[in-house]
Design a protein that fits this description.
This protein has 90 residues and is of the alpha+beta class. It has helices spanning 14-18, 30-40, 42-48, and strands spanning 2-7, 20-23, 59-63, 66-67, 80-85. Helix 2 crosses helix 3.
């Protein structure tokens, strides 16, 4: 299953920031995608996921131009998934 992945965060692998096609091998939910990306890209896990590979609460996800409010959302073949840190402050 192919999805397009992009990470809008500092200190992650260059390819993640530029975006890339990713051929998934694990399940079709967002947590499965996060676990798989965490196992392949150490800086993804360091900056976007906790020790168990779960997405940090401060990270927002947009799938096909819609905010993913449900962490267990299904990520379908051909989806565009963008990860970014929540912006806070004033």
């Amino acid at each position: 299953m192919n999805v397009y992945v992009k990470v809008l965060a500092l200190d992650v692998e260059d390819g993640l920031v530029k975006g890339f096609q990713f051929n998934r091998t694990m399940g079709n939910t967002l947590p499965n995608l996060v676990l798989e990306l965490s196992s392949i890209y150490p800086l993804f896990k360091k900056n976007l996921a906790d020790d168990s590979g779960q997405l940090l609460p401060s990270i927002r996800v947009v799938i096909n131009n819609r905010v993913a409010d449900d962490i267990n959302i299904t990520v379908r073949d051909g989806s565009k998934v963008v990860f970014f840190p929540a912006i806070v402050g004033g």
